Amino acid sequence: MWLNASTDYAIRMLICLSRASGVVSSSKLAKAIGVSPRYLLQIGARLREAGFVHVGHGSAGGYQLSRPPAKISLMDVIMAMNRKGNVAVLPDKRLPKEDFHTLECTYRRLEKGIHRQLESITISDLSQTECGELNRQIGKANT
Fold first, then answer.
1. Which of 18, 37, 53, 139 has the highest CB neighbour count under 10 A?
2. Recorded GO terms, molecular function (predicted)?
3. What's CA 100's distance to the chain center, in Å?
């Protein structure tokens, strides 16, 4: 599974919002995650459509989470940002089953494991946890 840049920036944007108290301006968010304000607006629109953020306009406007960060999983964000909903290890073209059945079964197991991990990690986890601790949590989930 590979994340595209928009999805990565969306996750970063949600982490920043989860750490903020109140509304955060688009210019501050763009600077914090390292994107142009115009690109941030595109990402923000997708996050708003998915119900993750509220958007305020005007001088006091900006972005704010519309639900608790513990209720937003990485899988939720990836599905919202990937219009095709593709979070797969499997290739688009299926392999002939008679020749590569074991390989396809392995891909399916990997895909299920990736989905479980993405569903178990929330924006709250990412905003409050150091990388080492998160890696330990992931390791525990795999055992």
1. 53
2. DNA-binding transcription factor activity
3. 32
Give how many domains the chain has, as a whole number: 1
Q: Could you give the C-alpha distances from 2 to 25, 71, 106, 143, in angstroms and in order?
A: 29, 23, 18, 24
Cβ atoms of 19 and 56 closer than 8 Å: no
Which CATH number is 71's domain given? 1.10.10.10
Residue located via tokens 């306009």? 57
pTM recorded for the entire structure: 0.79
Structural domain boundaries, residue 99: 5-142
Residue with tokens 């995650």: 33
Q: Give tens-digit pLDDT for 48-102.
A: 999 999 999 888 789 999 999 999 999 999 999 986 655 555 555 665 666 677 8
Using CA atoms of 68, 70, 72, 78 in order, give the dihedral in degrees to the nearest 10: 150
- The pair of three-digit structure tokens given for residue 55, joined into one six-digit string: 């958007």
Helix (H) or strand (E) segment spanning residue 65:
strand 62-65
